[in-house]
Structures are given as C-alpha cells and as structure tokens.
Amino acid sequence: MADFDSFVVFAEMRTGSNFLEANLNALDGVTCHGEAFNPHFIGYPNRDDILGVTMATRDADPDRLLAAIRAEAGLSGFRYFNDHDPRVLGAVLGDARVAKIVLTRNPIESYVSRKIAAATGQWKLTNVKNLRSETAHFDEAEFVAHLDRIQAFQVTLLNGLQRSGQTAFYLDYEDLQDVEVMNGLAAWLGVKARLDGLDRKLKKQNPAPLPAKVGDFDAMERALARLD
Q1: Strand 30-32 to strand 53-54: parallel, antiparallel, or no bridges (unpaired)?
Q2: Which of 9, 48, 64, 138 ranks highest by number of CB atoms within 10 Å?
Q3: 202 near 42, Cβ under 8 Å?
Q4: Is this prediction's pTM over 0.85?
C-alpha cells in the first residue's frame, strides 16, 4: 500500500478540480486546501491563511506552507495549476512521499467552459436556479496558446515522474462521476474511508453539447481540423 505524507492534484481551470476536491474532502481523514499556491490568493478567494500560514509568509517561503500541509493530521493536500508558484512544482514533483493525482479534460471542452465562465462571471454553481448562460466565441490563436500550455505542463509532469521513478493516479473529467473510481483513488492514497455516494453540491454549469455552447461552431471545427 502506498504511504504518502500529503498529496497534490495537478489540474487546470475548468477540469472538474472543484468537484474532485469536494469528494476528497468527503473522505474521513482527507483534507484538500484548494489552490494553496495560486499567486492571487491562498486556497480560496477572500481567505487569509491556510493552517496559520498567511499569504505573505507563503510568498516569502512556500516551504512553510508545504510543511504545514504535510504535518496536518490525516492526509492533506492541495490543487496545483500550471500558473501557480513554480517553486512548489520542483519541491513536490520529485518527492515520492507526495501522492500525485493528475486530472485532465478534453482541452476544447475546458477552453469553452472557461470562456463561458469568464463571460458570465460564474465559476461555481450550487443551485441550478442561479445558472447564467452565455455563448462562447472561439479564437484559434487563443485556443492554440491554451493547448500549448496544457501540453507543456503535462510533459513536465510526465518527465518528472519518469526521472524519479514515480507514478500518478490519472483521472479524466468523466471519471469524476464514478464513485468506484473515487474509492479506487482513496485506496491508492492509502485512506481507509470510502464514499457511499458522490458529493453533488456543485452542479455542472454547461451540460449542453458543444454546438450549443459555441457561437461560431463551424469555424471552430474547421480550425480544429487543422490542428494535430
């Protein structure tokens, strides 16, 4: 059985990482502290600290927060995106005591979801009555940049794991709806707790198929056909 001191969820915006975090936190003895190393906030917007470590202290010395997360009772971790503090990536990627969870999503789906969230200002949804709708506009150059960032980050993760002889637990966006997969993750983490069902407080914001969410869908299809 794996023996970890902490964990990190490697993900991107609009990949389902909030939903994954909610279900990790539903496991007894597991705590995920949000985007602990987001350069614009600590953990979550409008929060002052994590485990007594303030944002100013974290920025001056990210190892202080890493140490606090490792030392917390149970198994604790955080979500890390490609634009988070790069000092942290080097500190955790080669450390076999940090469990790596890699969450991915079809990049065009995450791109469209991000465009809609930016247009509506709605990044989380707990009540479908409050859903705000908007149509995304596809920008080929913007999407290519989005894709390049994702691919570069995934290559960095893969190479880091290969060089240190580690493996990660890989999840796709659709896997998050399978309670057996979530319990498989709990087993891999070495956690005894299991989920009877998924935490569904967070609602899917854009359940419609892509053609209904993109205003210039035909142009998007033509652009995607040119890409590898």
Answers
A1: unpaired
A2: 9
A3: no
A4: yes
- The reported pLDDT for the residue numbered 1 is 43
User: 77: which 2 tokens?
Assistant: 């971790």
96-149 tens-digit pLDDT: 999 999 999 999 999 998 888 888 776 665 655 666 778 888 989 999 999 999
The three-class DSSP label of residue 123 is coil
* φ/ψ (deg, to 5) at 132: -110, 135
Structure tokens at 212: 């209904």
Rounded CA gap, 77 and 93, in Å?
A: 13
88 within 8 A of 37, measured Cβ to Cβ: yes
Backbone angles phi, psi at 45, to 5 degrees: -55, 145
Report whether 134 contacts 119 (CB < 8 A).
yes
Task: Please report, as a single letter, which amino acid is at residue 204.
Answer: K
Quote the strand ranges of the chain, DSSP E.
6-10, 30-32, 49-50, 53-54, 75-80, 98-104, 169-172
Neighbours of 111 (CB within 10 A): 24
Distance of CA 220 to the CA centre of its chain: 25
| Averaged pLDDT in 10-residue chunks for the chain of 228 residues | 87 94 97 98 96 98 98 97 96 97 94 85 62 82 93 97 97 96 98 93 74 88 83
Residue 69 corresponds to which amino acid?
I
Phi, psi of 35 (to 5 degrees): -85, 75
